[in-house]
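Contributing: when you submit paired examples, paste them exactly as shown. First protein:
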Amino acid sequence: MKDLTPPPASGCRSTPVLKERGQREVFCGLTGIIWLHRKMQDAFFLVVGSRTCAHLLQSAAGVMIFAEPRFGTAILEETDLAGMADAHDELDREVARLLARRPDIRQLFLVGSCPSEVIKIDLARAAERLTQVHAPHVRVLNYSGSGIETTFTQGEDACLAAMVPALKETDARELLLVGALPDVVEDQMVALLSEMGIDNIRLLPARRIDDTTAIGANTVFALTQPFLGDTHAALERRGAHHISAPFPFGEEGTTAWLQAIAAEFAVPEDVFDQATAAPRARARKAIAQAADVLDGKSVFFFPDSQLEIPLARFLTRECGMTAVEVGSPYIHDALHGPDLDLLSAGPNISEGQDVDLQLERVRAARPDLTVCGLGLANPLEAEGLATKWAIELVFTPVHFYEQAGDLAALFSRPLRRKMRLRLEAAE
């Protein structure tokens, strides 16, 4: 199949990486529940944590008091923290009460938090015990959403990795698409692949547990999110084969991602072109309209979501920006390597966090746009730097062709706002 991706003059895959191991500022992995509970319609996420955990989830989700979300918190009281009560007995009672009230639950995730991990509650053992009690109607799994040593997108990674060992075995040759996407984006993705004649498609996570997802030595999988390192490893342990590709952000990334899958399934070139020509043209037009203000501007990425490398590739190659620094909490060669190959040499590549040192570098560089966490955005705006909240890029539909213009607009909006403020100040 003809390669539709133009090669850069030189990539960043072999660029020395600056390792940062200092002060951190990120949301915790519990944040991932906000999009996972919307995606998995027969699942429930029970956080074993403190009132702070409960307040975080309510605030992040914006859930109104009369809503019935698919998540909740089993709150650890002082007696639990002091070891005066048996937390496992209390957890068993709460789970039984929850499942009696919510018979629609088919998957129950016990989600560890900072407090539950500090006092060493064994949620893995609890999940095994509760599965025996409530099977076969309910499958109980556990994962850690603690923010002690992780960044917030790792909550989804830990959740999906926990699901992999429980997947059924299959010998069928199937494509597994991995990563939680909004339903409308997921439908677009599946429709594009179906137009190419690829119809043996499974999804992880599926919208319902009844949607049979199995795995085996003939399974090939493609990741839609660049923060699924643990899930990638878990799938390979089950014998599945990873289709390595740039991530589907923008027209170029989406085309390269689809092309890698098409090559795996021997899709004819004319069939691929027919399926992608129209949406590719729409994506290019939408990007051009949204990104005119980005051309020639510089961008600095603080490490936050693990989307930084593919987004830097998108901004530099499709929007005309120059990357000053691209920081990511973790860099995984099998996942990020294809995007690093396309990212032209020049920017500083950093892994991990040392907020004070990174602030020094961004102040020295004075980029036109800084992509960072909420905690840094307002102080940097006060210093005259235009910023984009990194977390917005996770909560907003930005994958594939139809969202490419929206993705560019997310970055151009802060610059347009800054230009308007300057004009108003000059008047």
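Second protein:
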Amino acid sequence: MDKKSKIGLLVLSLIMVAAGILILGHKDVFVKVIVITAGVYSLAVGFYTLFNISSWHFVRVTKTMAIVKSILSIVVGLAAVIAPITIAEISLSAIQIFVAVILCFEAVVAVQNAIMCRRIDKRINLSSFAWEALVDAVLAFILFSNPDKALPAVVTVAGIAILALGAICLIITIFSMVKSKKAE
């Protein structure tokens, strides 16, 4: 690795360490950032599905479920973008419960899609549908079980992960720079 790459990695590592510390120090702000980011993503997925559903070659039930899912995604997305900016923390718990309901619906849609695909072709691998249903169900369970602490826990885990990854990269880069300096 050349000197410029090592310096770039060193700077990136320091930024990651600083970001991890910042996230852990300001969890409430980053909870709102996560909610707003998830809302923008939900809006994008909802509109994409809604505008492209006519080109899909699925049975009527699947198209209907996809339309319902996209409309729910748009509603959740709007709520997730607007609520953290305008309303107090109570709304975040309500949004999390609403998202949990949507996740349950998405798990059902994934199972229904798997059944439909199996009917079309027995050779289709259904593992992606199974994983989607499982992840949706687990996330819904977490959000239902304790909506007040679910997002702060995600922020804490993300902050610790970013901090740890940055610290590991920083240590490896420093050792690499010292080792190459000794070799010169």
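If you have annotations for the second protein, write them as plain sentences, like these:
Residues 3-183 form one domain.
Residues 118 and 124 are 7 Å apart (CA to CA).
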